[in-house]
Amino acid sequence: MTQFNTVLIIDDDEISNFVSHKLIEQSSFAKNIISYDCAQNALSYINEMVNNNIDDLPDMILLDINMPVMDGWKFLEEYSGLMEGVNKKIALYMLSSSVYSKDFEVASKNKYVTGYIVKPLSREKLDEICKVKESV
Q1: What pTM was estimated for this model as a whole?
Q2: CB 67 within 8 A of CB 40
Q3: Chain mean position to CA 70
Q4: Taking a C-beta distance cutoff of 8 angstroms, is the pair 37, 11 a contact?
Q5: C-alpha separations of 124 from 23, 24, 95, 117 in Å
Q6: Between vectors from CA 21 to CA 5 and to CA 81, what angle results, nearest 5°?
Q7: pLDDT tens-digit profile of 97-116?
Q8: Which residues are within 8 A (CB) of 76 and not within 5 positions of it... i.e. 6 or more apart?
Q9: CATH homologous superfamily of domain 4-135?
C-alpha cells in the first residue's frame, strides 16, 4: 500500500541510494522517488518547490548525515530556513550508518526531524515508518 506520494533520498553513497530506491519501489511505499547525491542540489530542488509549487514538495525525506561539501546537519540548518513559513508537514528521517549517541541526540532535538534510521533501510524499517504515520 502506498504511504507517500513522493520520497526524497539525499545520500552521497550511490549504492545506498540504489538499495533504498529499489526497496521503496518494490514495497510500493511511495509513488515517486527522487534521489540526490549532493545535499546542495537537494536544497536547490526544495527551494524551487517552495518558491514555485509548494504542492510538489516531497512528503518524506531520507537524509544521510556524513556527506562531503554539505553534511546532513548543515542541510538541516539551511532546510529550517527554507521551511520556516511553509505549512506542509514533511516527514524527515535521518538515514545514517552512524550509531553515535550524539547524532541521535542532535536529531531528536531538531523540530524538522521525525526520526532516525540506522542504515541499511529495510522493509521492517519502512513498516515502522508507516505505523508512526498512521498514529499521527
Answers
A1: 0.95
A2: no
A3: 15
A4: yes
A5: 11, 12, 14, 11
A6: 60
A7: 999 999 999 999 999 999 99
A8: 63, 110, 112, 113
A9: Response regulator (3.40.50.2300)
